[in-house]
């Protein structure tokens, strides 16, 4: 493989790798992955920054949190699709999906609500809707 490599498999190996402190193991990604993900990706973070990001992800991905997000996304998708298809025979799928994705991300991740759809993308964000 070009450099010293250790391959760890199985449940015990995963527990060891994922539960190890920073002073035990330091993960280094291949240069190509570093170029794609950047220096601030979770794979490159260590120490307190890693614990902060990991803690945020764990709380965000709890089953009860996900259930809440699914309900919010379902309402937002229904509302937005009804609005987008009202009195129209066709819609631009890519443009609609971009708007939908942006609205879901701004609503779920950042709590920015659009007064028209109940999701993100309203107010100061409306200027972004013209970009395709």
From TrEMBL:
Known SUPFAM superfamilies for this protein?
Cytochrome P450
Q: Name one GO biological process term.
A: sterol metabolic process
Gene3D superfamilies per the record? Cytochrome P450
Q: Which InterPro entries match?
A: Cyt_P450_sf
Q: Is Membrane there in the keyword field?
A: no
Superkingdom assignment: Eukaryota
EC number annotated for this UniProt entry: 1.14.14.105
Task: Supply the enzyme class, top level.
Answer: oxidoreductase
Keyword check for NAD: no
Alphabetically, the GO molecular function entries are: heme binding; iron ion binding; taxane 10-beta-hydroxylase activity
Q: Which UniProt keywords apply?
A: Iron, Metal-binding, Oxidoreductase
Q: Which family does it belong to?
A: Belongs to the cytochrome P450 family.
Q: Which PANTHER family match?
A: CYTOCHROME P450 26, CYTOCHROME P450 FAMILY PROTEIN
Name used for this protein in its record: Putative taxane 10-beta-hydroxylase
